[in-house]
Amino acid sequence: MTAALASTAIFACFSLSALYTRRRSYLFLGSWLSSAVMGMLAMRLGGWMFGFRSAAYGLELYLGLLVFSGYVLFDTQLIVERAAAGDMDHVRHALDLFVDAVAILVRVLVILLKNQEKQEQQQQRRKRRD
């Protein structure tokens, strides 16, 4: 429930930010965001091949949350621009935003689960000390 609320808040804030700024002000992010996704892919492959999985996974998790939040900005403004140009493919536009929302939800959920796991481990260590 917390992950869903946090993801909804992130999605809503970034969507509203994209809607209330000047038109086309975030469209430059497309190339940067796709480069960041390719960098995360390279980081994942490097982690698998060279054995630094945990560090790469943590970095990819938080970087992915930032990147897909940026994609909400980019996709929202891109949808507005396409609609202004006459592209009224509502299903495709909804799927673009749905993919962004699911990517954010998954990352927030994993972050919350990792934090909960850390807290449980700390509580177990405290009980062992006592």
Q: What does it look like?
A:
With 130 residues, this protein is mostly helical. 87% of the residues lie in helices and 0% in strands. The chain has helices at 2-20, 29-50, 53-84, 90-129. α2 packs antiparallel against α3 (53-84) and α3 packs antiparallel against α4 (90-129). The longest helix has 40 residues, at 90-129. The radius of gyration is 18 Å and the shape is elongated. The two termini are 33 Å apart.
Task: Describe the structure concisely.
By secondary structure, the protein is mainly α.
Outline the fold blueprint.
Elements: H1 2-20, H2 29-50, H3 53-84, H4 90-129
Helix pairs in contact: 1-3, 1-4, 2-3, 3-4
Low-confidence stretches: none
Note the gap between the termini. Answer: 33 Å
Q: What's the helix count?
A: 4
Mean pLDDT: 91
Instruction: Assign a percent range to the helix content.
Output: over 70%
Shape call: elongated
Strand content: under 5%
Number of strands: 0
Radius of gyration: 18 Å
Structural class by sheet pairing and helices = mainly alpha
H/E topology pattern? HHHH
Characterize the main sheet.
none
